[in-house]
Amino acid sequence: MEIILIRHGKPTGAINPKLSAAGFENWVSNYNLSKIEEGSLPPKELGGSLSSHFIVGSNLPRSIDSACLCVNKEPDLKFKELREMEIPSHKFPFEFKAYTWLIINRILWLLGFSGKVESFKAAKVRAKSSAEKLHELAVQHGNIAVFGHGLMNKYTAKELSKLGWSITSKGKKYWGATKLKI
């Protein structure tokens, strides 16, 4: 059995303008609605290697669009638990580039300041639940390919390891694939 956790392609919302705190909140909303940039294509060998896999994805457009681009169909199963770990926003009277806001807010989130979004602790619980569901799907279907998101893939892989899965390769960038076997 194999589970492949694939990070989505580069979203159209992956831009880095200078923003206020309120502007960053809008940036996050737009990013979550993003599909994949026209020029961000999956490696050819990735799509070809997934013909025998049951396809799973989050319910975010960039995940669904990535599956369509890679395997020419929407995921066989979509579930919201695979969504990216949420990005908080805090009201500071500054302007920063979007990626700077992202780093600041992620650090605060990791330190326990989650604001209106799920906490880091709750997100890790969601990753554990996702890993358990993916394990069950692998038992049912054999090979699973998951079109997901950076941090959620990372923590889901950690939880799959605790269930006996071995990580055989890791991928972090857009279209990166983390492969696990049992």
From TrEMBL:
| SUPFAM superfamilies recorded | Phosphoglycerate mutase-like
List the InterPro entries: His_PPase_superfam (IPR029033)
Q: What is this protein called?
A: Histidine phosphatase superfamily (Branch 1)
